[in-house]
Design goal:
With 485 residues, the protein is α+β, with helices and mostly antiparallel strands. The chain is built from 11 helices and 26 strands.
Length: 485
């Protein structure tokens, strides 16, 4: 996520989010679900899954006992009534023998659940949907859950970080946010440690555009409604899902055999936002030369104009940008930041939120690299400006353990980027770029921790780097300026 506007750094996280219009597709009626009764023996062999993954900062985020491989999300959204109806199919594998399991679903009303085609009991516990299958789910076996739901979607409010999720707009909706948002419009295991592939079918009133992640795979209009279909075939963390519904100027192209789909809200006159998003593949190609092959099957970007969204977010394959980033003219720096996340954060994803610097430090450093490449300040000048101009609070907040309240603080972004540069200066350019490219390649589509990165950097460089990372990531005083050794 980018919290830094041109000429303005946001000190408070505006985790907002999106509202988007989702529209459920037109599918034939489902066959009647079969009923089954679990035996007393089976009931004794299985236990309920956990209502959270146990993340240090957000213990109730996500759920335990299963691993999702694929979501098929079909929603219908009518902006005139702000009403959403949906059917989501969750394909997963049990990692424990389950008598029940949780899904994250905020606010919406569940109308029915089946597991492997058999009707299942369901109950709500706050923003948790508790599903009790008719028979236990054996560890190691796959299962398919289908959930039908409806309601008026609302964003979530995090006491520390603000709003995120589905947001009604003047011409449709937007759904996005970090660290959580997906559960406001479909049932999900809402933690980045459980990545999955996604198919989206979003039905909206004819004339509106519905943009989501991945490659466009067609659209069809019937009886005044248009269904837009999208497919993200690379594993994706749930907070990286998005939908934007409204009136957009759409640009379609192809680059290196991949589709390019970008959309800029028609609320803005054609100009700086369009020019900035038009540089997407140029910036991606530059970053590919630095970090290695672009990790996804499509490119693009979406610009929205809503007073509640003043951030940019690296939603997978198609980042979303607030119009505020282009209020003073073209801004390719924010494009570089969000595209760098396609490697760092999207392809190589966090195992836990406390290691957020791995996302934001590298994305901010990519801004510095792009600025130098594009004829601006050198990377060293960017480092020096931050190092000498940083506030005392930045040094008091260690980016390697910022705490939930400081998840998106300047320390995570700027000191995180300074940590990356300190590593570069210490090990030299040849080893540094081998470290970065190897990290992106070896950990592609996976989940990582800071300890993983330190071990990787030491292995590639042949250097002992504990002191460097301890000072830059965990210390509470300004480290010495890095020098080559």
């Amino acid at each position: 996520m980018t919290l830094r506007l041109r000429g303005l750094r946001l000190r408070t996280v505006l985790l907002l989010a999106g509202v988007l219009g989702l529209a459920a597709c037109s599918s034939p009626p489902e066959p009647a679900a079969r009923e089954a009764t679990p035996s007393p023996t089976a009931a004794r062999q299985f236990k309920p899954g956990a209502a959270g993954v146990g993340d240090d900062y957000f213990p109730r985020y996500g759920n335990g006992g299963y691993d999702v491989t694929r979501y098929v999300v079909k929603v219908r959204y009518d902006p005139a009534t702000d009403r959403l109806t949906g059917t989501t199919t969750v394909q997963a594998t049990a990692t424990a023998s389950l008598s029940a399991f949780h899904l994250d679903l905020a606010g919406l009303t569940v109308r029915g659940v089946t597991v492997d085609g058999v009707a299942a009991r369901h109950a709500r516990a706050g923003d948790e949907l508790v599903v009790t299958p008719a028979a236990g789910l054996t560890s190691g076996n796959g299962f398919t859950a289908e959930i039908r739901y409806e309601g008026t979607p609302k964003p979530l409010t995090n006491e520390t970080l603000g709003e995120g999720g589905f947001r009604h707009t003047s011409d449709g909706a937007v759904a996005l946010g970090q660290p959580e948002s997906a559960s406001t419009w479909f049932p999900v295991n809402d933690h980045p440690s459980d990545k999955a592939t996604y198919d989206f079918e979003i039905t909206v009133p004819e004339g509106l555009t519905a943009v989501s992640n991945g490659a466009p795979v067609g659209k069809a209009t019937r009886a005044g409604w248009t269904t837009w279909k999208w497919a993200e075939r690379s594993p994706m963390a749930s907070y990286l899902s998005m939908v934007a519904i409204g009136n957009f100027r759409v640009t379609r192209a192809e680059h290196k055999g991949r589709p390019v789909f970008s959309a800029v809200t028609t609320k803005l006159p054609e100009g700086a936002a369009d020019a900035s998003i038009a540089r997407t593949v140029e910036v991606a190609d530059y970053l590919e030369g630095v970090f290695g092959p672009y990790p996804f099957g499509s490119y693009g970007g979406v610009v929205v104009d809503d007073p509640g969204i003043r951030f940019a977010l690296e939603t997978q394959s198609r980042p979303v940008y607030s119009s505020t980033f282009f209020s003073r003219g073209a801004n390719s720096g924010v494009v570089a930041h969000e595209l760098a996340h396609q490697w760092f954060g999207d392809s190589v994803s966090l195992a836990r939120w406390s290691d957020i610097w791995l996302n934001e430090g590298f994305a901010t450093y990519a801004e510095w690299l792009w600025l130098e490449h594009d004829g601006g300040r050198t990377v060293q000048q960017s480092f020096d400006g931050e190092y000498l101009g940083a506030s005392a609070s930045l040094w008091r907040t260690p980016p390697g353990r910022p705490g939930a309240a400081n998840l998106f603080s300047d320390s995570v972004y700027q000191r995180g980027a300074m940590t990356v540069h300190a590593l570069r200066v210490t090990v030299g350019d040849e080893a540094f770029f081998r470290i970065v490219r190897g990290w992106a390649a070896d950990r592609r589509d996976g989940n990582v921790t800071t300890a993983d990165f330190v071990a990787h950097a030491e292995q590639v460089s042949g250097r002992q780097l504990d002191a460097l990372f301890d000072a830059w990531l965990h210390g509470t005083e300004r480290p010495e300026r890095p020098t080559a050794r």
